Structures are given as C-alpha cells and as structure tokens.
Amino acid sequence: MKLKELSELLNLSQTTVSRALNGYPEVSESTRKRVREAAETHGYHPNTRARSLATGRAMAIGHVLPLSSKHEMMNPVFTDFIAGAGEVYSAHGYDMLLSVVPDELQERTYRDLRNKGSVDGLIVHAPKLAEQRIHLLNEIGIPYVVHGRASDSNEPYAWVDMNNTHAFKRATDFLLDLGHRRIALVNGLADMDFAIRRRAGFEEALAERGIEPEAALVSSDEMTESTGYAAARGFLAGPAPPTAFLASSILSALGIRRAIEERGLRMGRDISVITHDDDLGYLQNRAEVPVFTATRSSVRDAGRLAAGMVLEMVQSPDTAVRQVLLESELILGQSTGPAPVFG
Amino acid sequence: MKLKELSELLNLSQTTVSRALNGYPEVSESTRKRVREAAETHGYHPNTRARSLATGRAMAIGHVLPLSSKHEMMNPVFTDFIAGAGEVYSAHGYDMLLSVVPDELQERTYRDLRNKGSVDGLIVHAPKLAEQRIHLLNEIGIPYVVHGRASDSNEPYAWVDMNNTHAFKRATDFLLDLGHRRIALVNGLADMDFAIRRRAGFEEALAERGIEPEAALVSSDEMTESTGYAAARGFLAGPAPPTAFLASSILSALGIRRAIEERGLRMGRDISVITHDDDLGYLQNRAEVPVFTATRSSVRDAGRLAAGMVLEMVQSPDTAVRQVLLESELILGQSTGPAPVFG
DNA sequence: ATGAAAGCGCTAACAG
DNA sequence: CTGTTAGCGCTTTCAT
After folding, report:
1. What pLDDT score does B267 carry?
2. Of the CATH numbers 3.10.180.10, 3.40.50.2300, 3.30.470.20, 3.40.640.10, which one belongs to the domain with range A164-298?
3. What is the spatial distance between Cα A219 and Cα A146, in angstroms, rounded to a whole number?
4. Which of B77, B145, B224, B258 is 20 to 30 A away from residue B233, measured at CA?
C-alpha cells in the first residue's frame, strides 16, 4: 500500500493524506480521522527511503564499533548500551545503523556515512584513537555523541560516561571506612581512559587519609578471570598482602576469588572484594560478589541517554554540547551483606 | 557533490556517469576511467536513499534481536556474530540495520521493516517463539536466515547453527575414552533448543557404551558462574560424585572449578572439565580451562556465513533454502594438556 | 481546508 | 557508446 493508492481510495490528494498523517494543523479533524483509520486498516506505512529523500533527513543514527582485538571487554557493555539506544530510536521512528569497522577504516567509514547520507548522527563507541576521531568528526560536521571519553582531546564534544574516578574514590573510601589499610587495585589496561580515571580515584582516596599508594598492590591488565587471578595471587603471596581488593570488572573479581580461596581463605569473610563493572549481570544472577556497580541496566540507561542526545542534536543543530557523567551506586551482592572489617 | 554536478563537470549525462560508476559494460573504458577519477577527486558518493528508491532495493539487511531477560547469555555471542556479518555487508555495500525489540513487538517489527522498505532481508537471532516467527516470516515473504534453530518448526527455513549434538557427543566420547564413567552435564536452560541438542549428544555417547545416564548428574539452568558452582557443588557432595564435567559455557566451567577447588581438588588434575562455548574468549586469554570450542572466532564465522546467505537469497530470490551446521573443534587450554584418566 | 505540481538524487527503459 | 525521458514514493511550496 502506497500513498497514491491510499489517497485514491479516500478520494483525496496525496498531499492531504500526507498532511493528515504527519499531523499538520491545516487538515480538518474529520478528514484526519478518516485518513488515519484508512491507513490503519489498510496497513499503510510510508516508505522510509522515499520520505527521507524528500525531507533530506535519513531518519537513522549510526553506531560505529571499532573492531580491535584489544577491546574484547567492551563487548558485553556494548550490547546493553545498544539495547538502551535502540529503545529510544524506535520510539522516535529512527533506525539504527550499525557499522563494525577495523580501526584503520574508521575515517573512511565516518566520511562515507556522511556523504552517502545514510545517517543523521553518530554514536562513537570505545574511544581509542580518540583525538583523531573527535577532530575528524568535528571537521566532518555531523552530530555525534561519544560513549566514553578521551582524556587527550581538547576539542569540545558530547559524551556520556560513567564517573569512574568518583566511583573508585567512593569504593576505596568504603573500604577505608571499614578499617582496611592495605587495598589492592586490579585495574584494566593502563592506557585505557577509564582505567586511568579509576586509578586516580583510588589514589585520591588513599591520599586523603595520608596513605601512600603502593605500586606493588596495583595491577593493570586486560580484565579477565585469569589476569585477575594472576594479579591477586601475586599480591597475596607478597610480604604484606592486602586485606581488600578493588576490581575493575566482575571477571577480575572471579579470578581474585579463586586466588583467595586457593589460600584457604574466603572472600567476604577473610578478605573484602569490591567490583565495579557488572558486565556479566551478576547482580541479576545473585552471585556472591559485592558489586560497586555500573550494572548492566545502568549501561542501558547510558545508551538511552546518548541516543536522546544525538536525536536532540540532530533535530536542533544548535544544541549546546552536553557531557553527562553517570554516577555508580554501591550495591552489595545478595548473600554477602556488608563487607566485614579487617585490620 | 551529487550526480548532476559531477555529470555537468564532465560534460556527460547523468546516465553515462551512473553507468560508468556502476560498472555497466556499455561504457567506453576511456570515459569510465575519466568518470572514476573525477568521482574520486571530487569525493562523489551516491546517495543511498535516492539509489534505493530508484532501484527498489534497500541495500540493507536487518538484524532483529529479541530483548528478553532470559537470554542474557546470548549477548556475548551476539556481538561476535554481528561483527562477522558486518564485515560481509560492508564488503558488498550493504548496511546493517539493528532492531532491538521486546518479544511482544516482534511481529510488528518484522512487518514494519518489510512495509517501510527498510531492509531487503533479515537475520533472526535467538529463536525462541520460533515456530511463530518462522511462520510469520514465511508469510511476509522476506528473505531471512535464522541464527540457531527451532526444533518445533516443521516449515523449511534457512539457518546457521553449531552442531551441538555432535559436539557434545564428541566431548563425551573424549571423556569416555579417557576412562571416565561418571560424567556430569552442566547444561543450559532445559527449554532452549541448543541445550536439548547438547543433552541428546551426551546421552547418545553414553548409550553407545551401554552407560545409563543418571538424572542426578545432569543440571539445566542459566549458564552463569553461580549456577555452575551450585550444580557442581551438589554433584560433588553426592554419594557417587562425577570424575568429569561437561559444561555448556565457560562461565559454568568457572563455577565448576570453584566447587572443585573448594573441596581441595584441582581441575585438570583430579577432575576433568570440558567446556563448549568460549563466550568470554578464554582461549584468547589463555585461561587454564580445556575448551571444546565454539570459540568466539567460530561465532564470527557463523555471522559471516549467515550474512552471505541472506545476501544470496536477496539477490537471487529462488535460491534453495540452505541449512548450515558448523562443527566445533576440540581445543585444550594452554596450560592444561590432555585431561588425565580417572576411574 | 484541499489540490496541483515540482522536486529530493538516482536508475532504467528506450531511443539514437 | 551516449543521451533523453520517466519514474521510484514521498514532502512541500504555491495556488485556490
């Protein structure tokens, strides 16, 4: 069913039918009603391509996902973010275009998406070659929002990110308040923006209490179970082992737990562990791991937010550049209760 | 830069320029070269919407991802699959449209995608209400490929799936060959298609050796660390504990390992564990878990394959319905070596 | 309040 | 080999 057919059916012009359906005020309510009903019963859906050719708007937002092996940990987060964004798009009649691109083809991809008119705006994932990308996008002049941040860029750009610094400051404070003085940090790769911020929050909290951060209690690596295990094992075997761990991801926490139990200790009883990213949905699954969020649902929220922001920028081009910092919450694993105090 | 401008620039008709760029044979090589170069230097990119309005082809494939809380485990797999598919699309000039939809809106989504002409074909993820969806899609008459299968559908449809039955038969045989006689199966949710097939393979292998499968050594649940732990813990505490475990996911395997170590035993030395889905990229990360594949890269292959299949169906509508079964490989974790023999 | 007509940027008959 | 002429299905001036 196309507009022409529908209009002939109603003995109206295509113009009127189009106006009626698109909510233009100059249509009488009676005809509007008639048109709406006819459209409904005959299952009329305007052809997206024709419409966007006529209007000049693509009615689609592109998500660019860099495909680099170093970013495996980003995957689970990505899916939740996408789910949140997708919700917003479909609520506003927008489509979501997904481009998975190797790092070296990113520039081309951005330019193509712009030139081919496939999208009205972009969401940039996993900022990495951040400075270049941001500069490029500003030059191309397409509305975009970055999921995450790039510390090394000085140009203004819109982003949505977790407040990693604050989250880790709070987590550290939490452990300090419980009496812990030797806290280990099992962090993500040292050159990742979020890892840098997390470490900063950790050290800030220690500094406020006059505690010298020990390099021997900090590790930076990919966030997997095995790296978490290796790091924790090393820390626990040292001369002055930690009484508490701060883990950047739930997977690291699983590895830490293994190292702890291997020594005949128990996590949550003998040694406190707090995690940030709940990237496996542990809270949902009620695992016995205390989690200092960025839960999966909060990632979904971030997606919703970012999507809302691009749509706003797309619809009113002069929108101010917004930068949103989401706070994490402290949530304790179901069966653990508050972490116990240890000297 | 639009076609009209480019053609005026070259003193050619839009038609000729279009034909030159689209590789039509009736253009002289000299003009084609001239046109190509001009297009290149002036950065001409045909507008996708205009082109697809004219041709009737959307030049896009839709991926529909049902958003149900029960399918959390599908997420990591999804990302890899998407990455593989995305590769194929961009190589063929197709876009990927992603729709994340709640279960109850799926029918509408399919119909809309069709009616609005947004896509030429579909990939269906996480078959669940499978029978209905397949019937619906056949009725709608849009080319589609299912990622996974639906045992309960008797209509023909194209799919790409892992050979779960065979993989678990082989894994079980592997353990049986090592001398194991009491093998536990920690499986996914009982009503999931893949879980049913995996169990079938497991039981088939046992039956061939005249071993009665014990219900007490089989668990069916979501595939998380904590459910794996709970199941393994229960099995190990029983009167006749297993000497080996078969886990449906690497996360379950992690939980199994915890239960094993909690009893002062060691995985790979005292008790053998084999996993199927490497959904966390453990092989890449060199964790000490033997994996009976479906590695992340094989999932990516599945994505490539499925994408190729839809494109084929889209381009030649009379393609026969293809159904592809991918075999898993046995891969042993880096530092484990072959599982030891136990009575 | 409604309609006629002119595009949006491109491809595809149909000439020549 | 190249060009002319219609559209693809919709929106949007400009009339009425």
Report:
1. 79
2. 3.40.50.2300
3. 27
4. B77
